[in-house]
Automatic annotation (TrEMBL):
InterPro entries, per the entry: GTP-CH-I_C/QueF, GTP-CH-I_N, GTP_CycHdrlase_I, GTP_CycHdrlase_I_CS, GTP_CycHdrlase_I_dom
UniProt-annotated binding residues for Zn(2+): 87, 90, 158
Name of the molecule in the record: GTP cyclohydrolase 1
Swiss-Prot/TrEMBL catalytic activity: GTP + H2O = 7,8-dihydroneopterin 3'-triphosphate + formate + H(+)
Signal peptide bounds: none
Assembly description: Homopolymer.
Species, as recorded: Lysobacter soyae
Gene responsible for this protein: folE
Keyword vocabulary terms for this entry: GTP-binding, Hydrolase, Metal-binding, Nucleotide-binding, One-carbon metabolism, Zinc
Similarity comment: Belongs to the GTP cyclohydrolase I family.
UniProt EC number: 3.5.4.16
Domain GTP cyclohydrolase I residues, every copy: 17-194
Amino acid sequence: MSDQDDIRNDVSRAEAEAAVRTLLKWSGDDPEREGLLDTPKRVVKAYADWFSGYAIDPDEYLSRTFEEVCGYDEMIILRDIEYESHCEHHMAPIIGRVHVGYLPKGRVVGISKLARVVDAYARRFQVQEKMTAQIANCIQRALQPQGVAVVVEGAHECMTTRGVHKRGVSMLTSSMLGTFREDARTRNEFLRFIETGRR
Ligand SMILES: Nc1nc2c(ncn2[C@@H]2O[C@H](COP(=O)(O)OP(=O)(O)OP(=O)(O)O)[C@@H](O)[C@H]2O)c(=O)[nH]1
Ligand SMILES: [Zn+2]
C-alpha cells in the first residue's frame, strides 16, 4: 500500500509522518539527520498499535456468551489484567492493572474476552475515570448480570516524567454497578478477593 492510499480518519500516513517531523524540529533536533530519518515512520506505526482500540467495538467481544456453567452463579473475577494506555491530556503513557468482577444472571462470557474489552478501551486516549466506567458499562450492557465491579490502578507518566514529578503514585478508580453498588457485602467480597494472596 502506498502512503497516499493509507488514509485513516481523513489523515494520510504521509501527513501523520510530517506531523512527527514537525515535532522533532520543534523539539530542537534535525529530522533530516540519519538517526531520525525513519523515526516518523516508526512513530506512526507505534501510534497504530497504541491506538488500535478506536477500530474495535468492545461490545462484539462479549456478544458470544455461554449459559451458566453447571449452574455456577457466584462471583467471577479476573484480576491483574495489565494494560497500557495514554492520557488524553498529555498523550503520555498510563500503565496499570484492571480487576474485573461480575455476578452472573444466566450468562457468562469467555474470560479472555474481559481482557480484550480492557485492551480495546485502553488503546485510546483516556482519562482513567472514563476508562473505568466504559469497561463496567460494556460488561453490564452485554451480560445484564446482577452486578459488575471494576477497579483500575494506573501510574500516569504525565505525573512521573514531567509536571509535578511524583514517582510511585498510583491512581485508583472504581465503578460498581448493580449488587456491587447496592450491597456492601458483595462489594467487600470482591475487594477481599482482589487482595487475596497478596503480601
Ligand atoms: N482525573 C484525571 N486527571 C488526569 C488523568 N490523566 C492526567 N490527569 C491530570 O489532568 C490534569 C491536566 O491539568 P492541566 O492543568 O490542564 O495540565 P498541566 O498544566 O499539564 O498540569 P500539570 O500536570 O499539573 O503540569 C493534570 O492534573 C493531570 O495530572 C486522569 O486519567 N484522570
Ligand atoms: Zn496526562
